[in-house]
C-alpha cells in the first residue's frame, strides 16, 4: 500500500480537465462499490473503463455519467487505460486517487 503522499503525487499528475469531474466521480463510486463487495482486484474497473472507451454513447446512457460530450468520455477513458501505473494499485488506492482528481477538477471550474 502506498503512502498518502505518493497517492497525492499520482493524483496531481493526472489530467484534471473540468469536464472530467463526473467521470472521476463515477470511477470513485465504482471503486467504492467494489470495496463494499470486498473485491480487491481492480480489473473489473478497467473492464468498465474499456467499455466506456469502446462504446461511449451506450456507456454514457447506462452508467449515468454526465459530461459535455461523448468525445471527452473517450479521451478520459483512453487516458486512464494508457496510464500503466494505475493498474498496479489496489481498489482502495484507486478510490483515493479518483476522489482527489474529482476535487481538483471541481476546483478548476470555480
Describe the structure.
With 110 residues, the protein is mainly α. The chain has one domain. Helix content is 75%, strand content 0%. The longest helix has 19 residues, at 91-109. The radius of gyration is 13 Å and the shape is globular. It starts with a helix and ends with a helix. The mean pLDDT is 91.
Q: Which structural traits does this protein have?
A:
110 residues; 7 helices; 75% helix
Helix-residue proportion: over 70%
Alpha-beta content class? mainly alpha
Number of DSSP strand runs: 0
Distance between the first and last residues' Cα: 33 Å
3D shape: globular
Radius of gyration: 13 Å
Number of helices: 7
Q: How many distinct domains? A: 1
What are the segments in which pLDDT stays under 50 over at least 5 consecutive residues? none
User: What percentage of amino acids are in beta strands?
Assistant: under 5%
Mean pLDDT score:
91
Biggest pleated sheet: none
| H-E string | HHHHHHH
Kindly summarize this structure in a few lines.
With about 110 residues, the chain is mainly α. Helix content is about 75%, strand content about 0%. The protein has helices at about 5-15, 20-35, 45-55, 55-65, 70-80, 85, 90-110.
Question: What are the SSEs and their pairings?
Answer:
Layout: H1 4-13, H2 21-36, H3 43-54, H4 56-63, H5 70-82, H6 84-87, H7 91-109
Helix pairs in contact: 1-7, 2-7, 3-4, 3-5
